[in-house]
Design goal:
Layout lengths: L1 E6 L6 H15 L3 E6 L11 H6 L3 E3 L9 H18 L3 E5 L1 H13 L7 E6 L10 H15 L4 E4 L2 H9 L8 E3 L6 H4 L4 H10 L7 E5 L8 H9 L5 E5 L5 H11 L5 E5 L4 H4 L5 E4 L8 H8 L4 E4 L4 H4 L6 E4 L4 H13 L1 H18 L2 H16 L2
Parallel strand pairs: 1-2, 1-4, 2-3, 4-5, 5-6, 6-7, 8-9, 8-11, 9-10, 11-12, 12-13
Length: 381
């Protein structure tokens, strides 16, 4: 089977990681797989190095970028169209909004070169909470139109599927839920040696350490991280990642008087070994598809405290692997963290159960098998 995966950019994040692990798994099955990705904006870190580590065939498409630009978007569509006509894949599988739009339009224009199967995955979406209401309405109309051009749509969680149905992007029977899959044992180092090394590196001592990882952007509500920290005396917050709000968040930490209890790591290549340093993991997001950092934290045995945003509930089982609170409930999140800080048995129980469940639910083999079944179903009709 010849497969082309298109994604806007291979930046640090769950979408890029899952696409690369999916492509690598498909290659192991004997398929001819190519990943096509566009430009990584300034200020974002790249995961392109994983293409070499995983042995994934990769083509950089400079015309493809995240920001809306009619000229570049037309150029990206033409470039993908040329690729479809020369490579003649059986499957075009697009990921993320921009690659999904340009890729599906290219498939529509390809005529006899249209792949036999056109699939698009929503790794979350930008249809709610990211932009002003005018742009959100425009993007929803575009997605509703593009949904008709695909043979199947994939959502990474039940919650993402339900949002797409609620927003009338597509009917429920056209959307298949295929959760993420990762090589968790290969990515996570939860050893005591890693814990000691990372805590020493950040000067954490015996503090109760709260972890966070991601992009410092508004949808993640990073100011709430600081508000929560201010209500958990003695705790230290370690942030792995960067983004356009970093300067603002640093200033806010100083305003709240917690700057000395925050460690900004920036983008790092060894996040998997940092989970061992954390006693709890915190997410304050306003929206999530299926938060990969929560999957990884739980796989490392670290209980997660999070807002019940989007697909977070697919990952974190409230009271069983972590503790959830409503979006914006800073006192509730802080109370959950204090409970974990003061109850070693609870922290251990949630962490151990999380580690077991993540390996059951989010294995690469399961994801690859689920996608394989979807492709073959489309190709057989």
């Amino acid at each position: 089977m010849r497969i082309v995966h298109g994604i806007a950019r291979l930046n640090v994040g769950g979408a890029a990681l899952s696409v690369l692990e999916l492509a690598a798994g498909q290659q192991k099955l004997g398929h001819d797989v190519l990943v096509v990705a566009g430009m990584i904006p300034p200020g974002e870190a790249s995961m392109e190095y994983l293409t070499e580590q995983l042995g994934v065939s990769y083509t950089h498409l400079p015309e493809l970028q995240r920001e809306v630009s009619p000229r570049r978007d037309i150029a990206a569509t033409r470039a993908i169209l040329r690729l479809l006509r020369t490579r003649r894949p059986d499957v075009l599988h697009t990921h993320t909004a921009k690659a999904g739009a340009t890729g599906r339009v290219a498939a529509l224009l390809a005529g006899r070169a249209r792949p036999k199967a056109v699939v698009h995955t929503y790794h979350g979406h930008v249809l709610s909470g990211y932009f002003d209401s005018r742009r959100e309405r425009a993007y929803r109309l575009v997605e509703r139109a593009l949904a008709h051009t695909a043979d199947a749509l994939v959502a990474v969680s039940d919650e993402v599927r339900d949002d797409l149905v609620r927003l009338r992007v597509a009917p429920r029977d056209k959307i298949v839920v295929i959760p993420y899959g990762f090589d968790l044992d290969g990515r996570i180092d939860s050893s005591s040696a890693a814990r000691a090394a990372k805590r020493a590196e950040a000067g954490l001592g015996d503090a109760f350490v709260i972890g966070w990882a991601g992009r410092l952007t508004q949808i993640k509500r990073p100011q709430d991280l600081m508000r929560v920290l201010a209500l958990v005396p003695g705790a230290v917050l370690v942030l792995a990642g960067d983004g356009e709000l970093r300067t603002e968040v640093e200033a806010f930490a100083r305003t709240l008087g917690v700057a000395d209890r925050v460690r900004f790591l920036g983008y790092i290549d060894d996040l998997g070994s940092w989970y061992a340093a954390f006693d709890a993991f915190l997410l304050t997001s306003a929206n999530e598809g299926a938060p990969v950092v929560a999957i990884e934290a739980l796989a490392a045995g670290v209980p997660v405290v999070a807002t019940a945003a989007g697909g977070t509930g697919t990952v974190v089982d409230d009271g069983e692997t972590g503790l959830l609170a409503p979006i914006g409930d800073v006192p509730g999140l802080a109370a959950h963290l204090e409970r974990l800080r003061d109850d070693d048995d609870l922290r251990t129980r949630l962490g151990e159960e999380g580690a077991r469940r993540m390996r059951e639910r989010f294995s690469t083999a399961r994801m690859v098998a689920d996608v394989e079944r979807l492709y073959r179903k489309i190709l057989s009709t």
